[in-house]
Design a protein that fits this description.
Layout lengths: L4 H16 L4 E5 L8 H6 L5 E3 L15 E3 L6 E6 L6 E8 L2 E4 L2 E4 L10 E2 L23 E7 L7 E19 L4 E9 L8 E11 L25 E5 L4 E8 L4 E4 L2 E5 L5 H23 L1
Length: 293
């Protein structure tokens, strides 16, 4: 009976660890990203932190080839792409078209020194009520990280690396030109899409890409722009150990990604470390006793 004790202890530890892990769950939500969208609202409590793409600086329309490193310490280390620099690269933007000048909405390009680079997309943008957004009417909207491609090559892939493992990750995604687009999103245990592939989302016929026509008020300067705010929201829950993310779409003009929502992978409690060590020690003892017998 004594010879069985180490084995039983190891089995109990293994069962305990197995019970503490949960399988990754992928999801996608379409429609307006507000509390009125049950899918969107129900996923938000799964995340504890938001990474803002403004960390990469004020968008000015500059295209960055290959690799772009975040200038401050945060969850995101860098963003990179496999697109040939001659065909495109990485670019940040804010989701808006016009700027409120007194009581008149004017094109953002009229304020090149005062305003960042804008994208007329389907993300959130001014003006909004406090219920839907913290953005003040007249200010640029959601901060975006995107991939700009010239349309003559493949759509390309955007890769995001994380300085630490994430257990859950979500974001909004929209194609630059196609109103209906396909997307493939993968998460990995290693940097730059290496290690094991934890999960994958293959999405077809997503709505919410291209230009948001109601975001422009050029036809009537007195008309208040209305954000579409319906770029799809997608992500992974309870994945554990996410170190990199890859995103690709069917749009050969590229796409934009909204701010990242995430939850860090929890560090095991000291008691868990003790149990792991106990299980390993038990295995060693069991092997030695087998050899002696």
């Amino acid at each position: 009976m004594n010879k069985l004790k180490p084995i039983l202890i190891s089995a109990a530890v293994a069962a305990l660890l197995a019970g503490s892990l949960s399988a990754s769950t992928s999801f996608t939500c379409s429609g307006t990203a507000t509390a009125s969208n049950p899918c969107y609202a129900s996923q938000l409590p799964s995340f504890t932190t938001q990474f803002d793409w403004s960390d990469f600086g004020i968008p000015d329309g500059t295209v960055h080839p290959s690799i772009w490193v975040s200038p401050t310490a945060g969850a995101v280390i860098d963003v990179r792409t496999d697109v040939d620099p001659a065909a495109g690269g990485l670019r940040t933007a804010n989701n808006y078209v016009n700027i409120l000048d007194g009581s008149i909405w004017r094109p953002g390009i009229d304020f090149p020194t005062a305003q960042p680079f804008g994208f007329q997309g389907h993300f959130d943008a001014p003006p909004n009520s406090a219920l839907n957004s913290a953005m003040t009417p007249g200010l640029p909207g959601d901060h975006l990280m995107g991939l700009l491609v010239d349309g003559t090559t493949s759509a390309g892939v955007l890769t995001v690396n994380f300085s630490g493992g994430l257990s859950s990750l979500g974001f909004r995604l929209a194609a630059n030109e196609l109103s209906i687009f396909d997307a493939t999103i993968r998460i990995f245990s290693g940097l730059n899409g290496t290690g094991s592939q934890i999960d994958q989302l293959n999405l077809r016929d997503l709505a919410g890409g291209g230009l948001c026509t109601s975001l422009s008020a050029l036809s009537n300067p007195n008309l208040v722009p209305s954000p579409c705010n319906d770029a799809p929201f997608l992500g992974f829950l309870n994945a554990g150990g996410i170190r990199s993310l890859t995103v690709g779409t069917s749009d050969t003009r590229g796409f934009y990604v909204g701010n990242l929502l995430y939850t860090n992978t929890p560090v095991p409690e000291p008691a868990s470390f003790f149990l792991c060590g106990l299980g390993a020690a038990a295995l060693v003892v069991a092997q030695r006793r087998r050899r002696r017998s």
